[in-house]
Amino acid sequence: MIRLADSDERLAARAFNKQAPLFDKLYATNSIVQYKRDRVRSHVEQWLLPGSKILELNAGTGEDAVYFAGKGHHVHATDIAAGMQAVLMEKVRQAGLENLVSRELCSFNNLEQLDQKGPYDMIFSNFAGLNCTGDLKKTLTAFDSLLRPGGVATLVVMPGFCLWETMLLFKGKLKTATRRWLGSKAVTARIEGVYFKCWYYPPRYIIRHLGYRFDLLGIEGLCTLVPPSYVENFSGKHPGLYKFLVQQEGRLKERRPWRSIGDYYIISLRKKG
Predict the structure, then answer these.
(1) What mean pLDDT is predicted for residues 125-136?
(2) What predicted TM-score, i.e. pTM, was given to this entire model?
């Protein structure tokens, strides 16, 4: 029997499977996507020791897996979208990193079924893959058995409020501006003609469900002042303003309320010894 959360994730996987061959080309020239990747990687690298063993959830086309493997880390890249994993392994082959990157088709809703159970030095999930489940608690509960003592979980998640989206009210885009305001209710998303559900989680949700075995290391807002990547060519049209917003976000990223009202937040927690 497929659980509701599994079913929703599989619908998202269908959408991303359709997009897999073109996924990287769509975002290759988007400077804000690169800004987001650089910010996430910089945050992650605070906690990585040389030769760390990383379990990546929702690895997608492998941009981050190849990056971290290129730094000498071992990455076990998991995803439920077979099309994405095919693109990932072709990148790995081209980079000559087969000895540092392994892959496994596995849902983050069923981490107990992983063939490679670690223990890992880090669990990493980028760009809101975990927002595709209405039962994130189940996923978080599995982290304790997969991480070694002192291991770190770093997750990039969409919160329940986004400053930039809310400002779309002034453009009359009511549905987009308020879609995160439903709290625990699911929001329907659409990619390549496939509809799937998305949930939004504040940092306190993750802290509450991991806190008894984990210590909070840090939270950073991502695309709080810098616009989300769907604001097309913002950096090209407004280079001076874009540079200013990058600087200000760097200064305010860990402060309240800025750390939790962006398009995403980055959160890291360390497993207690």
Answers:
(1) 93
(2) 0.90
